[in-house]
Amino acid sequence: MFIYTVQPGDSVYQISQKYSVPLDQIRLANGLNQTNIVPGQALVIPTNTYIVQPGDSFYSIAKMAYLSVNLLIRANPTISPNRLQPGMRLTIPNISNYQATGLGFYTLRTPEQDQSLINNFAPYATYIAFFEYHFSIDGSLNTINDATAIHTAWSRRVKPLMTITNLTESGFNAQLTHQMLNQPSARNNLVNHIDQIVTNKGYAGVNIDFEQTLAADRDLFTGFLRELRDRLKPKGKLLTVAVPPKTNENIPWLRGYDYGGIGSVVDLIFIMAYDWHHGASEPGPVAPINEVRQTLQFAIDRIPRNKILLGLPLYGYNWTLPYVEGTIYPGISNQNAVQLAMNYQVPIHYSEKDQSPYFQYVDDQGIQHVVWFEDARSMSVKSLLIREFQIEGAGVWQLTLGFPEGPWILTNFFHIKKS
Hints:
Low-confidence stretches: none
């Protein structure tokens, strides 16, 4: 696999001819329902053979394949880098030797849709965390129709996880978490209910996604996780947790998460390494590479590497311009972002500093927009970070958003662990 950045005047047909890859394979790998591609668009080219083009070098080809030059040279011992000629065929070496855990969050829909999605994603997932159960102030839980999803996951060698959140009708509720954690009866009641559902429904374990936890509840939250672990571990059940990204301990709204304490208790930590810019912020990259790198560096100093999953977003945001403070701007899936650029026939730009794509367009009402999102390039760079930091693997929010390039990227960089 390599990633081609569309140039002015390119067509999918021309690209397919240039690299001798069937047009339909390129369309399938990139989810292209139409072929009106735009300059700057990243296309996964699903082949392990690269046909040299005029102006190519081992360096430029290695960069497109997200490899080191030395790896590419070793995979092509009969070709001298100094004698590269157009039309030569280079082998792109297989680098999927990194054993990684893959976790995908999935918002349950209907049993039929659940079954279909799980079947499609099963080859690329170790765990799927079903979203979501949420608790009430007394520690009780809602009910959801998850039987088909649980059964399908196990049948496809995917371990199902029960996700519990502090979501309410108004969003994630820190006060609800605060009240539950500070009432021993409610806390114990929640542990009991989680234990019962995990055991009775046949979940492999649980994912705790309590967002916006208060600094005052930092130790109580870690203590709650310890209580839950002590209940689940003797039964062979997993405890995983989703936490926001931290680069230091001085960020007031993130002090509720003790990376070291949490890491000593749980089996896996999904770090939500995104939303540095979001629907309530000014425009910008959702998961800029420097901040992601700093988050991983902070994490590995406090959490065992074999417990860390790097969370990746399958979405971006669409801001209108000029930005108006206090406005909530909508999210957009990565796939729909690309489709939007194609619909308006505007070029996609790529921030080398942030390793993130973006574009601007003017809508039918004459309003200017800017969209930041993730594509095959930005996801590949983050995949290299996982290998560099030697962490356990990756996870995504969330599977219904879709990302056709995802399976190609995952299987290019990793061998996904299965039960």
